# Entry
Amino acid sequence: MNIKEIARKAGVSVATVSRVLNHPENVAPKTKEHILKVMEESEYIPNWFARGLNFNKTNTIGLLIPNILNPGYMEIAKGVEDVAHQKDYTTLLCNGENELDKERKYIDTLIKRRIDGIVLISSLLEHEDIMNIKKQEIPIVLIGENKYMSADVPLVRIDCQNGAYKAVKHLIENKYKDIAIIYGDTPEQENKRKLIGYKQALEEEKIIENPEYIIEVGNNIEEGYIAAKKLIDLKKPPRAIFASSDLLAIGAIDAMKDYEVKVPEQIAVIGFDNIQMANLIEPKLTTIAKPMHKMGVVGARLLFDIMDSKDNGDQIKPREILLQSKLKIRKSCGHKERIGEIF
Amino acid sequence: MKTNFLGLKLKNPIIVAAGPWNRDGINIRKGIAAGAGAVITETIVSDALLDVRPRIAYNGTGAQNIRLYSDIQVESWQREMDIAKSKDSIVIASVSAHTPSELAYLAMKMEKFGADAIELSISSPMGESLEVVASNADRVYQMTKEVVENIKIPVMVKLSQNATNISKVAKTVKKAGGSGVSAINTIRCILGVDIETMKPMLPTYGGYSGVPIRPLGLASVATIAQTVDIPLCGIGGIENYKNALEYISLGASAVQIGTSVMLNGFDVITKIVNDLEKWFDENDIKDIKEIRGQALKHLKSFEEIKIEPITCHSDDKECAENCHLCMNSCIYGAITREEGIIKIDKEKCTGCGLCNFICPVKKLRLDW
# Structure
């Protein structure tokens, strides 16, 4: 069933049916009701892709995330989707898997599908890729530290270095000195900053870095397990671990359970992200809460700001919005001292 | 009663404070219809969440709230502002966030949606770590500055009494280009504990508001008025027109009323506006300027107070039946009753003044 058949059935012109779909306010109420009824009876579904061609708009945005198995990204995605849905937009979710080629392919497909805007979360895309998207006049917003960042592209992020610093500082305040870091190899920029934050906190307290305590692994539960195993097996295992993501922390705690190391009595663990699971594992994970949903919401807002400005010709300058992370104290490391959380 | 505040022309100095009573356009209209000079929206945040239940407690004098932020997302406030705004209404948008860029973005949105001014709510004592921001002059400066640089409408910053030095923070607001300050926000509290269940009345720290915080609000307003030249809005425990006048006499150009609206409805606004108007007429006051800050003249620094040899005196009025309050409360043991008559030992009385406030029939006074 297509628009022509509907027009014939309803005894009106194709243009009138089209108006009902796109500018119903311009159609006489009686005619509109009649056509809608015909559509309903014929189970007609408008071809939204074709509609996009006509209006240069598909009411679709693309969202590229690094890893669909990391629940943190799902919370950001929900934030994006919440705003998009409210605006009557569909969000196409693309899982880049930290592979540049895969990301490029997705971008290519999104452009071909004439999406109206793109949100990139910690993507690996390079300058030329971004320029290519911009050339097509497709608005882009970045969430988190991306490989390509510039003042021309709106950005929502948290201060990863400061977050890591707060985490390690919390361990130090709870009298831990032998502190290890397990950090992920992706997203690269964020983890680099977290490592700097870790080192900064140690240096401030004049704690000498131990290279054995610094471990880089893949950012997932399994590798968190492996890294923790490596630390447990050291001649002098650390007394505390800062994991750069909750997934790594969960893997580490799992390893400690298997090797009968008590958390936090023998080794304390602090994570980063505050995914929902952090509150469910035993012991409940102390972590740096990243405002993930809010990052998604704010990112989507920035995207719609540009998309709307394209429609009404406003000039808006790209903004960077820095959101705040917060220490969330639970039971996986010292928790008597709660001042950092209450204030 | 016209008041110029933040460069806005208010028809009177009574403003409905930010809170859930102003949660949407229809409710904001109620405040305007009740006669308020301006209305401030419920505080708008980036990520509106569902509110916890319960979140407000009351003990007969003061109220504790845990979180009173708008559950309407910022884009939907466009519609609410359209409903709220009419020809002569003034609507101020209250926004809250944790970083300068986040705060500025919300302020810009609300400016676009037609807000006449912005109030920065960066001092709530709830589980949001904002109280710490409000006592840190540098952070208040950064936040205010970023907002001021991004919008054209006036910016007022709501301050906390919990700051070590509220004047210092108010000065910072001025330096950052803020048009005014409002004081005070609620104060970190636990309203009470049920000793049967050993449970606090609400499950986390909250903000204390209502009549008991008025003396704190008055002191903060006076302190700012004496030290910083910046338009001031008084908040805290205003129940009636006299309370509003107290704030104005200590330097406020306008006042905000919140908890009283929560407890009594918008009628309280109408009553305060009418009573205030009547008082202006009776005292032949044409402009609020004539009374603003008048009480500050009588507010001295401690060192300036002259020591006069005053002691307590009693007149012939009958005591209240079975009343021993003055004798019980005289720290110096100077008051006795002989054959039904109150006697004051002038040697023992040090003129502290407490009994004057305690006596229910007001028969005691200080003199020399």
